[in-house]
Amino acid sequence: MQETPLRRPRFQFTPPQVLVLGFAALILVGAFLLWLPISHEPGKTFSFVDALFTATSAVCVTGLIVADTATQFSLFGELVVIGLIQAGGLGIMTLSAIMVLLMGKRVGLKDRLLMQEALGSFSIAGVVRLTRNIIFATIAIELTGAALLSIRFLGQHPWPKAIYWGLFHSVSSFNNAGFDVTTASAKIFARDPWVLFVIGMLIIIGGIGFPVLEDIWRNRRWEKFTLHTRLSIRMTWILILIGTVLFLAAEWTNPKTFGPLEWYHKVTNAWFAAVTPRTAGWESIMTGALREFSLLLTIILMFIGASPGGTGGGIKTTSFAMIIMSLGATSTGKEDVTIMGRKIPRDLIEKAFVIMSLAAILVVGVTAILLLTERPIMEAPGSQHSALDVFFEVVSGFGTVGLTTGLTPSLSVAGKLLITMTMFIGRVGPLTAAVALAKRNLSRSPIHFPEDRVMIG
């Protein structure tokens, strides 16, 4: 009797497709839950488009909102939001690995490959250990942050509310989400260095990347760190330092931001303003009141974003560093791009430029469309929104930041859907592009065309 050959599945999803579909499924489930009446305060209404926008913002750890979280959602709704933030920050494959490990099953090769793609690891070796360490590190850091924040809140609120606030804001900060239940983000803490420092450090730790945290924990000496770790740390602090100095210079006398603050509070808030564009979205001063220079600086920081393998977005600090070093090498006539005594492979430089180019095309394209769809809002009597506000909102969505000049709640349905798409692409797009480029099959064409040259520059 002849055996029937096993049929192969007609459709086999690639790792990038699994990541995209996983995030999409999580967003749809979250949108449905947030749309339910049980998720809202009595008398509050919420359309499915608004629920989809909020779920996307939470899963993509962005923080842009169309309604205030504290006043719109019930306790159930807030718990759904924080659950989506945690799930989005950890990532789909990390959550899948958690379930597999809890059930005591063995993680197969396919799952390891998916985890490698999701975590941005160089190889599949050690990805299970890294995932396990991510779980433990996330719990430890978030509980520590929650305890430090709750201690401060206990002096202002009853202990149940203080603990809840501490936990919610710790999870939101570590995952670089920017959601809050204070109704005023961190503006009520503008003169509270304790809260700003704890939230700021949670943002930095979450955005610097899990592989970096593991490398620091395992080696604990600068000389033993990998090039990736050293570059991520150095770029993070360089951007924060430059941002702090420039915010101080631009906003020192601004009566709507730093002007009324004492000098030491100005320094604290300038540091916080430089940290939050790293895809966190918290604000201790009104973003819409910033001067144009500060808005442009914030846009640049949001576009760069956090480091690979973390909870943040943007084109990533390491990509930005390689682009800058490549431009420097080209302008000085050097053939090789070197960073900290190491030569960077040419294919990594190319990928960094591709990611930046795709991000720039997306941001410019969505901004152009929004300038058409949101024209009635911008031209309405008394409106103070400008093209810079639209551009700011798009970059904030792409970088999964969540800072806003106040335009988001006024967006049309088309505008909300466009920003929703931008947040989703910002969360999975650059990563997916990098993975697709890394795993593409290089095939030699049997036809070779003659080489020719064109003028550039």
Labels describing this entry:
457 residues; mainly alpha; two-stranded antiparallel ribbon; 61% helix
Shape: globular
**Count of individual beta strands:** 2
Distance between the termini: 71 Å
Structural classification: mainly alpha
Q: Domains counted in the coordinates: how many? A: 1
Write up this protein.
With 457 residues, the chain is mainly α. It has one domain (15-437). 61% of the residues lie in helices and 1% in strands. It is built from 18 helices and two strands. It has helices at residues 15-35, 48-59, 69-72, 75-90, 92-102, 109-119, 127-153, 159-174, 193-207, 210-219, 227-251, 263-275, 292-304, 317-331, 346-373, 375-378, 387-398, 413-438; strands spanning 338-339, 342-343. Strands 1-2 form a two-stranded antiparallel sheet. The longest helix has 28 residues, at 346-373. It is globular, with a radius of gyration of 23 Å.
In short, what is this structure?
The protein has one domain (15-437). It has 18 helices and two strands. It has helices at 15-35, 48-59, 69-72, 75-90, 92-102, 109-119, 127-153, 159-174, 193-207, 210-219, 227-251, 263-275, 292-304, 317-331, 346-373, 375-378, 387-398, 413-438; strands at 338-339, 342-343.
